[in-house]
Amino acid sequence: EEGDARSQYLYAKYGAELGHQEDFNPTVWYYKAAEQGIANAQYELANNLLDGEGCEEDKEKAIAWLIKSSSGDLGRSHFKLAKLFAQLEEKERAYFWLDKAINANDPAIAFELAKYVDEFNSDQFPLEVVHQILKRAEDNTKVRPIRYYEYFADVSARLGDYEAAAKYQFKANMALKRIANVPLRMREKLDEYQSKRTSSKS
Known about the structure:
With 202 residues, this protein is mostly helical. Helices cover 69% and strands 0% of the residues. The protein has helices at 5-14, 26-35, 39-51, 59-70, 75-87, 91-103, 110-120, 127-136, 145-158, 162-177, 184-201. α2 crosses α3. The longest helix has 18 residues, at 184-201.
């Protein structure tokens, strides 16, 4: 366990599941791996510093580790930094890191990133950018496909693309239909998009 940075990171992540000692502290091992430049460990260490998990809470140190981890082009590090600086009302730095998060092309964060950019409500990131981010997440919808498809339909409709809106609302409805009844709200939304699609073609 000592010395090998990759092993230290994996031990931090999975050590508790292996039934190790009760006083096992993953933050200690994340720190060891982070010191040796493992970007994922730096990110996890930063999260623990933000939450005071296995260590004292320290936002400044967390930001420093996130900045280090961002050199590995981790989209989630960029995204976390953008949100932190927005909370600190440092808009220019928030814009800088949000732009880097968008350009990281990380499908794992694309859905949450798109929603955040949408709510950010900035001329610097118009709705077309939200749509582009969502396109990247299309192959990463296993966890919440219904929410993803519904949101993609909404963004498409707001852009006036009712063809895409109807397509993604239909996908949302079909995904839900496999496990439950589709609520009236979703059926009516599909009808609305299909009607507007027809009208836009006439």
